[in-house]
Write a structure and sequence with these properties.
Distance between the termini: 26 Å
Number of helices: 22
Strand content: 5-15%
Radius of gyration: 30 Å
Mean pLDDT: 83
Shape: elongated
Structural class: alpha/beta
Low-confidence stretches: 427-434, 440-459
Largest sheet: 7 strands, parallel
């Protein structure tokens, strides 16, 4: 069956409409005996049909035969060979060509433009849906990005196309010229263009430029917020320049709608269809993960396996706490070391070092020293790989900063405890600490409508309390409380049952096919 690009289909449809208009004029000229006008009109039509035939010559199908038959009818007009059956034949040839074009299957060309491999999970399940669509050619094109100096200038180009999962076929960004190909849909997940203080994607891939190079520019955030997002993110260049913005919940969608008060068609532009990040975390199982031997040596013990807690630190905490963070880090590591049955998986944000070097250079040395002490003393697992979901699958619980990661744990029903930034322990001590801020407690999850109401207030934990609880649980993520947590989460977050990627892709396909 013939399959062509949507833009080519539109060109052929436009041709038929033009021929039909000319067709009426030819009939009128013939009926009035004005054969010279009919000849002129037919000659113009013949040139258009010849151009179309050069385009479709590479395809097999009846469209080429229909256009050739119509070409023969036009030649009859030009040569003056018009008999009693000419008009019926002329009409039928044009109708056959029109029906042949209508029967063509449209084949979409869809491009994904990730930049950091660790953020690929925000696109992957959409790509799965595109890859499995027989009427779609899907291209994954990792784009280069730059770290930025304090003065905003770009330095050191980075490219991570070589560290994506093996099952993802990568197209080099130099081999696919977007403005020449003009794909039907482009997905991207960097909202900032030049406005980020730490990084910038290559200027060739800024959203303002991409908008002119596709029929549908789709922004899918690389992070998740679930129910609350700063309006500054809503007004970043990426979402503002996009044709479609995909969001994880109706609450986030309402924030965007409120922030962009004057934007036209915003009700259709901002859609709450979920996030592929939830698809990824739901479908990643520890049994299917490749675990490094050095991790196994730390997490496994004779007669069983130690519980694991993912400790995640983000850039905001580092920059906000400055040097006060360092005794807190050491106290946290001591707390884990005191628990024989619980191991820490420390996963710093991939841009922590860059953030310190650019914005807190005086603190970079001590931070690096703490990282080296952690590794050399084998305090726990240090994960700086691009694969966040492997660590989540291996972990039994979450501890650390706010951000996307705790929401992923809530989605799959695993316990979460958010570290309290105001805790300032003395170095080398394990005091009775003020309570950490819980998103989870062992008895009940009361609400997820706002995350600051996610646990019953009178039941709070310190980190040591939390670790003791994790150590003694048979399985923290398989119990009635976990089921309650998952069910509450599904009520708030769109597509958190693993269907987000397919829903997003189908919505985009319908949008581009019926656009305009």
């Amino acid at each position: 069956m013939l399959k062509i690009r949507k833009s080519h289909h539109e060109q052929l449809t436009k041709l038929i409409n033009t021929l039909r208009e000319a067709h009426a004029l030819i009939e009128k000229a013939v009926s009035n005996g004005n054969l010279s006008l009919a000849d002129q009109l037919a000659t113009n039509c013949l040139a258009a049909v010849n151009s179309a035939l050069r385009f479709v010559i590479r395809f097999e199908g009846r469209i080429m035969d229909c256009l050739k038959a119509y070409e023969d009818s036009l030649k009859k007009v030009i040569s003056g060979r018009i008999d009693g059956e000419w008009l019926s034949e002329f009409n039928q040839c044009l109708l056959n060509a029109e029906n042949a074009i209508d029967s063509i299957n449209i084949r979409l060309q869809v491009v994904f433009l990730p930049y950091m491999a660790s953020m690929w999970d925000s696109m992957e399940s959409i790509w799965f849906a595109a890859r499995d669509d027989p009427n779609c050619d899907a291209y994954v094109i990792p784009i280069p990005y730059f770290h930025k100096l304090p003065d905003g200038s770009l330095r050191r180009r980075k490219y991570e196309g070589n560290i994506f999962p093996d099952y993802v076929p990568i197209t080099d960004y130099g081999d696919y010229i977007i403005h020449e190909k003009h794909p039907d849909i482009i997905y991207f997940h960097n909202p900032y263009d030049l406005s980020n203080t730490l990084t910038s994607v290559h200027p060739d891939f800024y959203s303002a430029r991409l908008k002119t190079q596709t029929d549908l520019l789709v922004y899918v955030p690389y992070f998740i917020s679930v129910d609350k997002v700063d309006e500054n993110y809503c007004l970043c260049p990426g979402p503002m320049n996009s044709d479609l913005v995909v969001l994880e919940s109706e609450a986030i969608r309402k924030t965007y709608l409120s922030a962009v008060k004057s934007e036209q068609n915003k009700e259709q532009k901002y859609v709450a269809l979920g996030s592929p990040k939830f698809d990824k975390v739901l479908n990643t199982k520890s049994a299917n993960c490749a675990v490094p031997d050095e991790w196994k040596e730390i997490i496994e013990k004779p007669g069983g396996r130690r519980r694991a807690v993912l400790y995640n630190t983000n850039i905001g905490g580092l920059l906000h706490d400055n040097e006060a963070l360092f005794p807190k880090l050491r106290w946290i590591f001591d707390s884990f070391s005191a628990q024989e049955d619980v191991v820490i998986i420390w996963r710093p944000h991939p841009l922590n070092i860059i953030a310190y070097a650019s914005m807190r250079p005086a603190l970079l040395g001590e931070y690096k020293q703490i990282v080296e002490e952690y590794k050399s003393n084998r305090i726990g697992i240090f994960d700086d790989s691009p694969d966040l979901n492997r660590a989540i699958a291996l972990a039994d619980a979450y501890y650390g900063d706010l951000g996307s990661v705790p929401y992923l744990f809530l989605c799959i029903g695993k316990p979460v405890l958010i570290q309290n930034e105001i805790i300032r322990p003395e170095p080398g001590t394990l005091p009775d600490m003020p309570y950490e801020y819980p998103f989870y407690n062992k008895d009940y999850i009361s609400s997820l409508s706002r995350l600051d109401k996610c646990a019953i207030k009178e039941s709070k934990y310190t980190l040591p309390d939390f670790l003791k609880y994790i150590a003694r649980c048979d399985n923290p993520s398989v119990n009635p409380r976990a089921d309650k947590q998952r069910e509450l989460f599904k009520k708030i977050v769109s597509g958190s049952d693993g269907s987000a990627g397919a829903s997003i892709y189908n919505h985009c396909v319908q949008s581009v096919l019926f656009k305009g």
